[in-house]
Amino acid sequence: MTHRVQRPGDGLPPSPLPANPFFSTPEQRLGLARQRYFEEGVLPAAGTVGDAVLQSWMRCLTAGQEPSRPPEFNRVTRRLERSTVQFNRTLIEAARNAMTHLQDTLAGTGVAAVLTDARGVVAHAAFTRQSDGETVIPLAARVGIDLSEAAAGTCAPAITTHTARACMVRGAEHFFQSAGMMHCAAWPIHNVHGRLAGVLSLFSENRAFAFDPVALVGMYGTAVENRLLRAQSAGHFLVQMAISPLMLDTPSEGLVGLTEDGRILWMNNDAAHLLGQPKWQDASLGLAPDGGLEMDTRPLLGLAGRTEPMHLRLPNGLGVWVRSRAPSPRRYAAHAVTAPKALHANDAGIPDLRSSPSGPPPQAASGSPESLREADRRWIAQALEACGGNVSKAARRLGISRGRIYRHLKAGSQETA
């Protein structure tokens, strides 16, 4: 007999869970809470079902889905597969190495790794082997399959696609009853605009994860996101930062994209933590003309193209190890040549990245900041001369703000006086 699916608040009086000794394990309590929710409309007791899962259940019911029917995976054709790969080529390329390593990591677990795009469509999958009794993973882990809530109901990639937040869905938390043997975890991947670009997920069928799936998928998902950010920021001043030089070029590094006059265009969440800013996806740092953190990029000019990290000070005073990449390396060649090793942390002072409207950054060790400052002055002076003293034209030519040129002129007039 098919039970009538009701939503909470349909007029049925809520009743507390029975004090039944047979419902003693989390799985049993979850199963009972699920049954009472879908059959009687009774909201699960606090802590039984996570808010993200419960809200997904509600969205699925509102969309008219029936938990008793199996999920209907869309038919994948060669044309759909090709178009999916073409549509997501930048995301797939950014994930290629991470997915290869992740597949090797999961080889002995029977767990599948799936990369979906911002729509929830599978763009890449790493599935090592099929175990006996597995029926869902072989169908779901295929390029072109739609794993959004509209098609797959409540599952980790569907929730993360909808919320852009990491999550885990276990067993009976899945909307469709036939997916009750599944366990999955998902991690969001964002682009340079702070918008969702894809989701990396892990799937296990007929067994719970024997490791922390959120931590693992988070590490690999962050690696994919960092690669994507790098690929999309060829025209930005890219800064790597970490509290230890050993953390650079790992998923734990902070990444920041800057304009040449120091305005932040984007940052990953590790950089947001170091800079004491809100989560990157929760704020539009630097996107407003007058709103956003500024960094003085002049101490970074000498680092462009150098492989050895340097110890610099952030605007909040925190000392971190930094490497930088200039959008036009040739433009900064003179700065790199004149940047001596005095920028290194072992020297007397640590160069400062804090924005300094009235002039150049504070002097660190003898010789080094002066050479950087002079190179910066020559760079601006040459542009002004070529543009006949027109500040606006010089700023456009150099790709910096007019304010930076005015500060340069003001500092020069003060020193002359």
Outline the structure in words:
This protein has 417 residues and is α+β, with helices and mostly antiparallel strands. The chain has 2 domains: 78-230, 2-Layer Sandwich (Beta-Lactamase); 233-416, no CATH class. It is 35% helix and 14% strand. The protein contains 14 helices and 10 strands. The strands form 2 sheets. Strands 2-1-5-4-3 form a 5-stranded antiparallel sheet. Strand 9 (310-313) and strand 10 (319-325) form a beta hairpin. Helix 13 packs across helix 14 (402-416). It starts with 25 loop residues before the first helix and ends with a helix. 41% of the residues are buried. The model is unreliable at 1-6, 11-15, 283-292, 334-348 and 356-372 (pLDDT under 50).
Any key phrases for this structure?
five-stranded antiparallel β-sheet; 14 helices; Beta-Lactamase; disordered N terminus; alpha+beta; 417 residues
Give the structure's gist in a few sentences.
This protein is 35% helix and 14% strand. With 417 residues, the protein is α+β, with helices and mostly antiparallel strands.
SSE map:
Layout (H helix, E strand, L loop, with lengths): L25 H15 L10 H12 L15 H10 L1 H17 L6 E6 L4 E5 L10 H4 L8 H4 L3 H8 L3 E4 L11 E9 L5 E10 L7 H19 L5 E6 L11 E5 L5 E4 L1 H7 L22 H4 L8 E4 L5 E7 L7 H6 L29 H19 L4 H8 L3 H15 L1
Antiparallel strand pairs: 1-2, 1-5, 3-4, 4-5, 6-7, 6-10, 7-8, 9-10
Helix pairs in contact: 4-8, 12-13, 13-14
Compute the CA-based radius of gyration: 27 Å
The tally of beta strands, per DSSP, is 10
What is the mean pLDDT?
Answer: 79
Shape: elongated
Query: Helicity, in percent?
Result: 25-40%
Describe the biggest sheet?
Answer: 5 strands, antiparallel
How many helices in DSSP terms?
14
The low-confidence parts are 1-6, 11-15, 283-292, 334-348, 356-372
Note the run of SSEs as H and E: HHHHEEHHHEEEHEEEHHEEHHHH
Note the gap between the termini: 93 Å
Which strand order do you get reading across the main beta sheet? 2-1-5-4-3
Total domain count: 2
**In terms of structural class, how would the helical and strand content be classed?**
alpha+beta
Beta content comes to: 5-15%
